[in-house]
Design a protein that fits this description.
The complex is a heterodimer of chains A (304) and B (267).
Chain A lengths: L3 E3 H15 L3 E5 L8 H5 L4 E3 L4 H13 L3 E7 H7 L1 H9 L5 E6 L17 H6 L5 E3 L4 H13 L4 E4 L4 E3 L11 E4 L4 E5 L2 H15 L4 E5 L2 E3 L3 H7 L5 E9 L4 H8 L7 E6 L10 H7 L4 H11 L1
Parallel strand pairs in A: 2-3, 2-4, 4-5, 5-7, 6-7, 10-11, 10-13, 13-14
Antiparallel strand pairs in A: 1-8, 6-12, 9-11
Helix pairs in contact in A: 1-7, 3-5, 8-12
Chain B lengths: L2 H19 L7 H6 L1 H11 L14 E4 L5 H11 L37 H14 L6 E6 L6 H10 L9 E7 L18 H6 L3 E6 L3 H13 L5 E6 L22 H8 L2
Parallel strand pairs in B: 1-2, 2-3, 3-5, 4-5
Helix pairs in contact in B: 1-3, 1-4, 3-8, 5-6
The chains are: A alpha/beta (304), B alpha/beta (267).
Chain lengths: 304, 267
Amino acid sequence: MTAMHDQNVAYAEELLRLGSEDKRIVVVDPDSNKTPFPFQETYPDRYFEVGIAEANCVSFAGGLALSGKIAFANAFSVFIIGRAYDQARQSVAIPRANVKLVGFYSGFSDSADGATHQCFEDIALARALPHMTVLTPADSNEVVRLMRWSVAHDGPTYMRLTRGKWPQITPDDAPLTPYVLHEGNDIAIFAIGTMVSRALDAAEMLEREGISARVINIPMLKPLDDANIQNVCVGCKAVITCEEHSVIGGLSQTVAWALRGTSTPIEPVAVMDTFGQSARDHGQLLDHYGLSAKGICEKARALV
Amino acid sequence: MTIPQLEAKAKQLRKDVVRMLSTDLGGHIGGSCSFADIMAALYYHVMRYDPANPEDPNRDRFILSKGHSAPIQYAALLDLGVLPQGHKLKMLGSILQGHPDKLKTRGIEAGTGSLGQGLSLACGLAAGLRLDGLTSRVYVGLGDGEVAEGQVWEAALAAGERGFALDNLCAILDSNGIQANARLTDTLDTRPYKEKFDAFGWHAIELDGHDMQAILQAFDEAASVKGKPTILIAQTVKGKGFAFAEDNPKYHHAQLTPEQYEEAMQI
């Protein structure tokens, strides 16, 4: 039975742990974390609640970085990188500020709130910024690894998290470069975030049909060496990309670009240039928009 | 420096801006000139700042939120020797970028240019310095057109006495009445300022932005205020110092003629 864990809980706990190890770590929060928030309770002087003001939040974090701090700024994905995009660009990316942007509730995961709160453009926006590292953890273990990496890295990062409990699927010694989670040879399935566990489910289903699928996780979407993408799917006849993100500017275009010198057929499983809507739960929305193991299998069968 | 010396320095900085822009380059002359007296006061008297040691952690910091007025700040940094001579403003590869760039230019505390973000940067910087127990003060220059940007008020709210009460923060509003294309009264009048900043929990001081004695007194007063940040609401004249430019919306950004250049050099 695979353990289930909430990325937001992992984030909160690791932030506290990192904060105890390095006094430079501070947090800027535009009314985004539920209280009690552990870091806030333990280090109230290092926690800056700026109110529902995401633009100030991000530039304020940039200012803290000017004083030598390692500044985490967290909010809903749609707001931290969407609403505050110019701030991420001017106050963080251009000066290479040591600011760690964290986007909560990415994709459909804020299911009840609907289109305004469901963000499918954040990876595209973040990737387009020079100097910005883009992190897409597949589970809570990966959140911890990526946070530790971020703090050791002097420069801007954007990390997108999902909501609720998801399976722990990544090994403790997983690298930051694209890596294989499930071996296979017919088709390569690249996946990020929530779609990694669905890709693993799809691989199992495909195996029963005699289709051998290789599932590859990409925890760091930028910077990304094209050669790593090319090498990790060598031998497979076709590629599928799976992301809880728009087909525009995310994983699919990143992988397609990396494989541009090949003639490998590539198909995306992604949000096809549409906004979301309200639903009872996250899984329902993922299934409705084709971001399911079943959806992945359908694409795979058509390719092999 | 004495008041007459500071006034002379401000005049020199204005001429340095004109030299920097010369006649083959357009530039933001208006807002650089309206801010010249404030700039002189800060770099040559008010700030704890040793130009021989511009990375001293205990230094006071200045952020030019109205970053297009970069020439006046560059003029001070060049004069102080923080920046080397020989770079041409806005040319390819120059350390003198069109808007302040922290990575390319020594002495620039924060990159600015997208209006409305500098106050937030100053707030974060002030908060971080205070957290480390430093007594450094943070000064930030705002434009009066700039305060139409909502983010300015997000930052003001956070910095005020009901927010983080950043009393190591001192803002200066360059109230010259003209923005990029027209007078504020013909576009969107952002006044009144004192009432707004009072309401946001700041200590607001109104003054003549070209009266050096009043400027120094205001900065002194600001340094003594506890529990809230201070803003100097400086009544200024855009293009101050050059008759052809004074109070003229056309000189927010302009390219001078050889005649105007000569006139400027005679002041």
